[in-house]
């Protein structure tokens, strides 16, 4: 798969409304990847308005829920 760019997760912004990490797309919309996708090991963020995708560079272990965690709570610190 051809990707537009590779972006570190630290360079993305957590969007409460979308419940996803986002990054500005050249088309004016936002690339998006959800916390659940990250937990599943997904590394591709899609733009909903165009065909561009980016590869998100992150450590998948940082997004696994802790063994005692229940519900949808994240075990990671959300970058501002």
Automatic annotation (TrEMBL):
Pathway: Protein modification; peptidyl-diphthamide biosynthesis
One of the protein's GO biological processes: protein histidyl modification to diphthamide
Single Gene Ontology MF annotation: metal ion binding
SUPFAM superfamilies: CSL zinc finger
Record keyword Zinc-finger present: no
Catalytic activity: [3Fe-4S](1+)-[protein] + Fe(2+)-[Dph3] = [3Fe-4S](0)-[protein] + Fe(3+)-[Dph3]; 2 [3Fe-4S](0)-[protein] + 2 Fe(2+)-[Dph3] + NADH = 2 [4Fe-4S](1+)-[protein] + 2 [Dph3] + NAD(+) + H(+)
Pfam short name (any one): Zn_ribbon_CSL
Domain of life: Eukaryota
Keywords on record: Iron, Metal-binding
Keyword Signal attributed: no
Domain DPH-type MB intervals: 3-59
Coiled coil stretches, renumbered: none
Protein family according to the UniProt entry: Belongs to the DPH3 family.
Protein name, UniProt field: Diphthamide biosynthesis protein 3
Organism expressing this protein natively: Galdieria partita
